What does this fold into?
Amino acid sequence: MTIITIHPKQNLVVLAEQAATVNCSSLKDIITIEFDQSENKGYIFYDQKVTLMPKEITSIAPYQSLLDEAQKVIDSRKPTFAQIKANKLNDIRRKGGASVVNTTFPSDALGDTHHYPNDRGTQANIMSALLLSLHGEEDVETKLWHHDGQKNWKRAHHTPEQLVQVLKDSRQHITDHQEKLKKLTEDLNATTTEEELNKIDW
It folds into this structure.
């Protein structure tokens, strides 16, 4: 808090660029009080009918009660620690959900390790291809996109058995994310300070 401004006519007190409505009716004939805490210097600007000359002041102490009331108002707007934790948990869940579908997962279904996308469209494609293959449908499109770990993407045919393995590995990918979310949630719930809370992220 460096610059303090009081506007009695508007019942407004500004602390650290945050405004609060406070009853300033006791400050009659004053238009504005400005005080720089870093220099312990300020001015009172009066209504023109009183004087055109501002009054220099070297202390804001006479108006401390107004500043205290303003600080209470400002503090009341701040979220509680419980609210901060809840917001953090929502953020972690959002990031975790995005990570599940926006990252690839490894699978050895084709013999060597390949990496498959895990978006909902790919999951639906794998499931439909597997179901049709298991029901004896011929000419079913069972080529899936994957890369070799170096982002060299290609499509390759998968047998029903290979499709099952890809699905299992996809499920493990989701389970791993769920376990990570569980651990982060437990860590978050155990925090008692914002400093501890800020160390937790996806």
Observations:
- The chain is about 45% helix and 25% strand.
